[in-house]
Amino acid sequence: MKLISKTLIYYLLISLPLLVIAGLLSYFLIKAELRDGTDETLMSEKVNAQKLIHSLKDSKTIYLSSDSLSNIKWILGKLNSGFIDTLIYDQEENENVGARMLRSYYDFNNNTYQITIVKTTMEEEELLEGILAAFALIIGFLIVSFVIVNWLLSKTLWNPFYKTLSELNKYEIKNHEQHKFTPEKTLEFNQLNVALNKMMEKIYSDYVQQKEFTENASHEMQTPLAVVKANLSLLMQSPHLKEDEMNRLQTIENTIKKLSSLNKALILLSKIENNQFSESETIQVKAVVSKIADNFIDVIHSKNISLDLMLYQDISSKMNPTLAEILITNLLQNAIRHNTENGQITIELKENSLIISNTGNPLTIPEEQLFMRFKKNDASKESLGLGLSIVNSIAKSYGFDINYSYINSSHYFKVVFN
Amino acid sequence: MKILLIEDEPDLRKSIKQYLYQEGYVVESASDFVKASEKAGVYDYDCVLVDITLPKGSGLDIVKQLKESGSKAGIIIISAKNSSGDKIKGLDLGADDYLAKPFDLAELNSRIKALIRRRNFDGNKSIVVNEITILPEQRQVNVNNELVSLTAKEYDLLLFFISNKNRVVSKNTIAEHLWGDDSDQMDSHDFIYVHLRNLRKKLLDRGCTDYVQTIYGIGYNFKVS
Q1: Of A58, B32, B87, B137, which residue has the fewest beta carbons closer than 10 angstroms?
Q2: Which of B20, B101, B199 to mutate: most A Cβ within 10 Å?
Q3: What is the DSSP string of A11-38?
Q4: What distance in Å separates the CA atoms of residue B165 and residue A226, rounded to the nearest whole number?
Q5: What are the tens digits of pLDDT across the range A99-122?
Q6: Res B47: pLDDT
């Protein structure tokens, strides 16, 4: 719910009962005031009637009004005296109308007279209705104008907020420099923007530091690895090595190789994510695929895998040549590594996509983890668990779609060059 | 053959020095930019191996200095920063080759030999090992004066063996030499055996001695007495 609607609802929730109470209060106050007025008139008429009684020659009934409701009567017994609310029949209107009646008794010359004075309260009621109608009209007008003013105000007042919000939505840490929260005239929004700028700077510098750390750590590891490798080479030259010593050297060498591959892969990942492969040219995917397939043909044959190239259509894509090679190499390597005995690899180029498929056992990890770092299927010893995440990183940095599916005991990887 | 090795890491410097010394090179070394710049300015070398990140300066400036003084030395950059930017910059400045750490000493050795061969235009253009003669410019191999037709991989393998003759080279090192960065992606190096078997057979068919010794567990040794 929008803030403006919420404010309005709260305002109405609070003001409506208040207005109702205020309306009722004024209704009763005005009504009481009007009644007091009526009663005063009745009282003064009663005094007039008493004066009239003094001038009476004999005791009889005198009508004080044309409708004969107000009268002076000579009576024997007394009823209750005082003000009474009553209804009288109005012949003109042909209905009962409200009236106020004053009944009092007056003793004069040993005679008791009953003075009855009746006054319809129709005028007062009409007055009250008129006042209440005016009151309701004012309140209605107030509410409507409040809604309109509030709506207009919040449009202009909240404008900087919506600006900040859309800027936040667009924010991408890679394009940090392009995002800036501009100063605002409203104090609160200005404070918000200043705070946001500060926060973004902090996040960005942490991000850069983190990135640099990965990169530097990997670089720093290269030299010690070189030292181990060099010494290992020298050690291998020793003429007196026994068989089990050689086996150990081989194990060490393989491990060092794996470690340096891992290191290289991590550096590569951080470079891709840092956009350090900015220079790009038009790549003919067909030529790259052919070249890489050629380079891997020895490995493919040594594993009794048959390779089927169906390069029906060439695709041109503007990208970094190194990354193009890495993308295809990693996919092909993946197809070789996770293949079966006497398996099959098919590389297909058609309609802007590259499809590499291979026979293989179903995934042992959830499909959505396939492109995550260090997630390995069947925990294969040789795999670093970085190949596909590098593929994903490259695809993402160029906006290519990459899909995986498993159909008829074959894994399919499809890269759509957009 | 005189080589200047510029590397700040003492252990690595020592190992490279020892390996190259065994190859019969005279190796001098410098551990920082100032010492390296001094030596490069005073003496003539056939080959300079230079690390980019050095104390007190950048190895790239040494490359610049050598080129500006008209040095004929071949220059190989050895760097922990395997960035294409540094590589292009180094090669643009006039370096001949670029080797990223961590590298194999056998690989470094074969790069130095190839570089010296390319530089030595006036000298002997062929490599002769007993009955084997290699003409690198034509990528041609003769055994007992008879041409042996080798595939590209077999030729590279033979040249690598001969560059590192009488040394144990591991299968990993061979794979990395023949397949470059892609060898990182290859799980087992059994397929090297296929190329080696074919190479051996072709050489033996021409009456060549079987120089290749299998070193159990590690790799091979091209043994020439």
Answers
A1: A58
A2: B101
A3: HHHHHHHHHHHHHHHHHHHHHHHHHHHH
A4: 22
A5: 888 888 888 878 888 888 888 888
A6: 93
Question: What CATH code is assigned to A166-276?
Answer: 1.10.287.130
pLDDT band at B121 (very low <50, low <70, confident <90, very high): low
- Residues of A within 8 A of B99 (CB-CB) are none
Chain A residue with Cα closest to B182: A329
Of A257, A277, A337, the CB nearest to B172: A257
Report the predicted TM-score, pTM, of the whole model to 2 decimal places: 0.66
Nearest C-alpha of chain A: how many angstroms from B194? 8
In which residue ranges of chain B is CATH 1.10.10.10 found?
A: 127-222
Give the DSSP letter string of A349-370. EETTEEEEEEE-PPPSS-GGGT
ipTM of this complex: 0.82
Question: Best of A216, A236, A275, A277 to disrupt the B interface by mutation (most B CBs within 10 Å)?
Answer: A236
Which of the 8 DSSP states describes residue A159?
A: H
Structure tokens at A211: 């990135």
CATH class of the domain comprising B127-222 = mainly alpha
Q: Between A and B, how many residue pairs show a Cβ–Cβ distance under 8 A?
A: 113
Cβ of A141: how many Cβ atoms within 10 Å? 10
Give CA torsion, residues B92, B95, B98, B102, to 10 deg.
Answer: -130
Distances (CA, A) of B179 to A87, A89, A310, B171, B184: 115, 118, 24, 12, 9
What distance in Å separates residue A311's CA from the closest CA in chain B?
A: 22
Q: Assign domain A281-416 to its CATH architecture.
A: 2-Layer Sandwich (3.30)
Hey, is the C-beta of B88 within 8 angstroms of any chain A C-beta? Answer: no
CB spacing of B216 vs A243 below 8 angstroms: yes
**Neighbour-count burial for A198-226, b at 16+ CB within 10 Å, e otherwise:** eebeeeeeeeeeeeeeebeebbebbbbbb
Answer whether B15 sits within 8 Å of A230, measured CB to CB: yes
The architecture of the domain spanning B2-119 is: 3-Layer(aba) Sandwich (3.40)
- B93-125: burial string, b at 16+ Cβ within 10 Å, e else: bebbbbbbbbbbbbbbbbbbbbbbbeeeeeeee
Instruction: List phi, psi (to 5°) of A232.
Output: -65, -40
Q: Which residue in A has a C-alpha nearest to residue B16's C-alpha?
A: A230
Summarize pLDDT for B211-225 with one digit per residue, the tens.
999 888 788 999 998
Distance CA A179, CA A189 (A): 17
Burial-class residue A384 by CB neighbours within 10 Å (0-12, 13-18, 19+): buried
- Which among B11, B83, B184 has the least Cβ separation from residue A227? B11
Residue A233, helix vs strand vs coil: helix
Cβ under 8 Å to A: B residues 170-199: 170, 172-173, 179, 181-182, 184-188, 190-191, 194-195
